[in-house]
């Protein structure tokens, strides 16, 4: 039918007429190779505890870790980042630097049993200290430089146990150069560092702190994690870590910080990772449980938004679920 608009030249809808042409012009793809799955390892035996605020996410004791590793491999996920919940915590987080600590044991188990799995370790003290802070406390605050010495010992013990990559998340100044030096001094100069370079002090970590039992017992993390209002400071943090020898730069959280992901991507040449954190996961799960949103669709839309913003790598509790869906298309 003729209309007065027949001469309209530009009709973007031409490229949206069916799925085939939409796929032809699609700009961004999510691939299972983009994904890293967080795994919680707890001391003890025969434990598989679901985290109440994170449906389908569990803490596993090492003797049951095979259940999660098998499920990940089946879904096509071959990279994990490990978080530990030790049997005992103390003021200086001794378990974190012990060659027999929970993470060191888990690394050895996974590397011996699953040679195809790439093991990344979270390098931080908050899960191991009795006060729940990310470092050594002096005069009521985390002491930067004393903490660096501990982080060096922690990464070296992870590397000795067989970790493939380390991911420091404590937001201490000079953390990357300290860790690079520590690794190099012990013959581990080929182990890459994925730095949680731009990490905000975020309420979106709430469910994780339940999962990892790492809520600070006094104060908060604002003296080391970043103010959510800042962008330029985030670029500064990223560039410092590039100079200090980081191999991958991470932005965390992801969904409320897509602008930061874009800016970091534009301002660095390293691969950019983002952490789709626990609170982002729990919100989708909770709304889906109530029947308010379509879980799979909202999950995929969130993950593609991180790719679109510039993330090359996404750490996500949805890794298995998203990968299984991707395998179907
Ligand atoms: C610190 C660490 C945290 C997360 C990853 N590493 C918590 C924190 O900084 O309090 C949060 C991850 C998430 O919320 O999923 N070791």
Key descriptive features of the protein:
single chain, 39% helix, globular, TIM Barrel, binds ligand PBG, 18% strand, 329 residues, alpha/beta, 12 helices, 12 strands
Please, what is the average pLDDT?
A: 96
Write down the overall geometry. Answer: globular
CATH architecture identity? Alpha-Beta Barrel
Alpha-carbon distance between the termini? 37 Å
CATH class: Alpha Beta
The number of distinct helices, counting runs of at least 4 residues, comes to 12
Q: What does it look like?
A:
The chain is built from twelve helices and twelve strands. The model has no long low-confidence stretch (mean pLDDT 96). It has one domain: Aldolase class I (TIM Barrel, Alpha-Beta Barrel). The chain is of the alpha/beta class. It binds ligand PBG.
Q: How would the blueprint of this fold be written?
A:
Blueprint (H helix, E strand, L loop, with lengths): L18 H6 L10 E8 L5 E4 L2 E7 L4 H11 L3 E7 L8 H4 L4 H12 L4 E6 L13 E2 L2 E2 L1 H18 L3 E4 L6 H11 L8 E6 L6 H7 L19 H13 L3 E5 L5 H10 L4 E5 L1 H12 L5 H15 L3 E4 L2 H10 L1
Parallel strand pairs: 1-3, 1-4, 1-12, 4-5, 5-8, 9-10, 10-11, 11-12
Antiparallel strand pairs: 2-3, 6-7
Helix pairs in contact: 4-5, 5-6, 8-9
Give the gist of this structure:
By secondary structure, the chain is an alpha/beta fold. The protein contains 12 helices and 12 strands.
């Amino acid at each position: 039918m003729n209309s007065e608009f027949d001469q309209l030249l530009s009709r973007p809808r031409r490229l949206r007429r069916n799925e085939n042409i939409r796929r032809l012009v699609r700009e961004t793809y999510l691939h299972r190779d983009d994904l890293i799955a967080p795994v919680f390892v707890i001391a003890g035996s025969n434990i598989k505890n679901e985290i109440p605020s994170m449906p389908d996410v569990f803490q596993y004791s090492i003797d049951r870790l095979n259940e999660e590793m098998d499920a990940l491999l089946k879904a096509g996920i071959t990279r994990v980042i490990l978080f530990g919940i030790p049997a005992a915590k103390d003021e200086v987080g001794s378990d974190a630097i012990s060659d027999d600590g929970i993470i060191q044991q888990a690394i050895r188990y996974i590397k011996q049993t699953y040679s195809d799995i790439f093991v990344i370790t979270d390098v931080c003290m908050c899960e191991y200290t009795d006060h729940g802070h990310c470092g050594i406390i002096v005069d009521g605050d985390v002491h930067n430089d004393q903490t660096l010495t501990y982080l060096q010992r922690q990464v070296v013990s992870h590397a000795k146990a067989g970790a493939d990559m380390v991911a420091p998340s404590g937001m201490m100044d000079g953390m990357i150069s300290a860790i690079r030096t520590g690794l190099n001094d012990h013959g581990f100069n080929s182990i890459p560092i994925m730095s949680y370079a731009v990490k905000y002090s975020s309420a979106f970590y709430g469910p994780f702190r339940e999962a990892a039992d790492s809520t600070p017992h006094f104060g908060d993390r604002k003296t080391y994690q970043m103010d959510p209002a800042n962008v330029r400071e985030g670029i500064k943090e990223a560039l410092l870590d590039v100079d200090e020898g980081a191999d991958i730069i991470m932005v965390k959280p992801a969904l409320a910080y897509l602008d930061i992901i874009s800016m970091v991507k534009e301002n660095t040449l390293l691969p950019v990772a983002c952490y789709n954190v626990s609170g982002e996961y729990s919100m989708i799960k909770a709304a889906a449980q109530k029947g308010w949103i379509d879980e799979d669709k909202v999950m995929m839309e969130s993950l593609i938004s991180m790719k679109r913003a510039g993330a090359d790598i996404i750490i996500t509790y949805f890794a298995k679920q998203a990968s299984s869906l991707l395998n179907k298309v």
